[in-house]
Amino acid sequence: MSDITTDFNDKTVEYDQLLHDFKSLLKRNNLKFTIQREVILETLYNSDEHLAPEALHHLIQDKYPDLNTGIATVYRTLALLEDSSMVTSLSFGAQGKKYELGAKEHHDHLICTKCGSIAEFVDEKIEERQHKIAEELGFEMSDHSMQIYGICKDCQNK
Amino acid sequence: MSDITTDFNDKTVEYDQLLHDFKSLLKRNNLKFTIQREVILETLYNSDEHLAPEALHHLIQDKYPDLNTGIATVYRTLALLEDSSMVTSLSFGAQGKKYELGAKEHHDHLICTKCGSIAEFVDEKIEERQHKIAEELGFEMSDHSMQIYGICKDCQNK
DNA sequence: GTCGCTGCAAAGTCTTTGCAGAGAG
DNA sequence: CTCTCTGCAAAGACTTTGCAGCGAC
Fold it and tell me: Measured in angstroms, what separates residue A89's CA from nucleotide D4's C1'?
């Protein structure tokens, strides 16, 4: 058996907890809790994909057409969430970034260069090693990310 | 002593070799060898930095003002070089990508979130592990990249 | 009520593309 | 000579910003 653990779509934090954290964050910074902000958080939570701002906006428009949420608000909220480390962004190949909730367990990425899909994995040995490297080089590490590029199983079979 | 090897500014390929490879590449694809393309390759080779297209363009304008190289040509040549895997690009945080010659020895990156500087390192254990992970998950790996984000030594001392 | 938030549209970045003349092979 | 390249400027893609009215607290 492999010691590589995969955590596809693992939800390690309950939504209520997440929402509570978000509200605290807002309160601490004298910001207001709005329905748009909640919907953005919820949509990120319910998505198992890494979302581009535009894709996130579309999901929200589809589900809550009456809110008529503007793309600018999506960008503004993502920036807010990223600044507060509640979401992390991934940018590669194409233009733009994709976002995911940081509350899910940390993981690295396998990116298919053919279909653009992103799978996730965790490897403890690599995690340990990264910390050791930063330490030895006198670098104060705050975060890290790793991507493996290639062709995913599905695309290999096509 | 640490087994982590750093390879700052290591040039593992001579320029003549690189130029030769570039010419072959062009010939194979019925493309033409132009002074602009040479200057772009040379400037990338002589730079120890990861260059954004605009920065590369400025370097070229400064060194060869008479060529009046257009930014569009820089973008076109970088795309060509990246497609042929002669350069790799790195995109993170801010907008845009930074490029470096792929001919240098493979390495991963330590990115300072304060000053934007990029340092490099190689760790064999991580390299091995990456191959193993891709293999076990049925992923046909073509490339990978790893970034550690944090505050570099210089910025810590400020 | 106050002050931050929102949608809209306009403005900014960064990158790509169309075109006519220049230049490599 | 032919066919690709190039610089320019215009167009595109993505993101940010200014503003006037709206809404959370």
Answer: 39
